[in-house]
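Form 7-S
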Amino acid sequence: MNTDVHLKADLRVRYGQATTAGAKSENEDCLGIRIPDDEALTTKGIALVIADGVSAADAGKEASEVCVQGFLADYYGTPDTWQVKTAAHRVLTALNRWLYGEGQRFADERKGFISAMSAMVLKSHTVHIFHVGDTRVYRLRDADFEQLTHDHTAVGTGKARYLARAMGLDLSLDVDYFHEDVEEGDVFFLSTDGIHEHLRSYEILSAIKDTGDDFDTTCEKIVKLALQNGSPDNLSCQLLRIEKLPTGSRKEFCDELGKLPFPPYLKPGLTLDGYEVMEVLDVSPRSQLYLVRDSKTREAMVMKTPSPNYIDDPAYIERFLIEEWIGRRISDSHLVRVLEKSRHPNFLYYLMERVQGQPLGEWIRANQKPDINRVVAIVDQIIHGLRAMHRRETLHQDLKPDNIVIEPDGNVKIIDFGSTFIAGVNEIRIPIERGVKLGTLRYSAPEYKLGHRPSQKSDLFSLGLIAYEMLTAGRHAYGEKFENADTLRDFSTLDYSPATRHNPLVPPWLDAALRTAVAINPENRYDALSEFVTDLQRPNTEFLTPAELPLMKRNPVRFWQILSALLVVAWMLTLLLK
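Output:
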């Protein structure tokens, strides 16, 4: 049951397209557009693609079809949480590798699966353009008709022009990417060289302005004009005009968010939408948690409801809705599952699986001298959950012991999405200032307070502090002054307190891994969560003292002398025993 009202947008366009083989026997151009009629219109946007298979190549037609059909299919198959740039680049890279691989079957790979290509994605109030080759993208705004892309061509012998960059030409893909804000009334025109090499910009502009709202007819007219001007190539073009951008006013946005009312405070025995309240689990200034039971299936689950304190706060409501949205899109055994509602909701809330176990904060208090291997195993499971989020360009931003539960079977779960940052959703422009809920100060990376852009390393910082707490009976790596630090100067005066000082059982190499994870400067932290857990599981030789290093590292000459002596002794014993 979909309640994501905040992710439904009224983005409307008018478009048309035309393609023909022209004077050639075969049309090696390909073009396409996809306008979703569901939530993907907001999360993924509208995609427009044009490709021109290289006529000198033996598989130019197949290459252009792969570019267009593959992009339109695979782009919408990427996670909704990804930014347009990330999703499109992943798709284009995969398509290019396939084309290049297929092209290796030809004696001259430059005559294989080669195509020029331009792709345009219109999402929210932004157009994202990806371009390689000599297809083109133009924009008409008011009276300004501007070419947005640059041809990737070079001049060879005899002044013949050839593609310097194209899909399938090289294993590594160098694609131009840029994005621009759009306005209602903007017109975008995409074409292959059979059009723009035989029509001047003013001729194309005149054709666009002289034709009415039938954009297919307009495109056909432009094709005919290029043919009349002697175009000997395939001819293809596309035309798109932005009729309406989403969420035009604050009132419209707030009205959409307010379609579902806040539920009242609930008590055990009450029923909401068929869910019977069994127990009040938690009440905070921002939300309420109830243990409920489905009256039909008798399944127990957790219901989260928004706090009435924020009933008039659209930024809070949008963030609450996003919690459910992201929870349904990321699945991992170390993340709490957000459940689908079995019936139409009459109020604003969402449902989660019931996670039973011990909060990590309680575990820390109960294990003042924990087994180091057990700590590392818990951290490893938390990393599994975080990586599932990071793979979808989502930051947790509020990792702390109270948001982590150890189940009776030892499985560890992250149970809260209230502060997540989702790159793909952040691209969707709204007419209000988005709510930015800073995580718990004790565990938040310095970049949040300093106003710097957070990254996956920010979640790593929080995890490093949690691991430090687990090994030091709840102490903080930088002491109590950390929470009061606000400026770069404040943070620069903080000193890391070695974990070995509070727990002599912590090996120095493991303490060095903790120190790296919680470095004040993000540049000094690990680049990946996997590097952190690896250094927790086994000694990193860079962290070992000279006395702890293996003999081969500490004194290679001595190591080989001893090894040689042992081999001689073994050889002599072999002779004596014969």
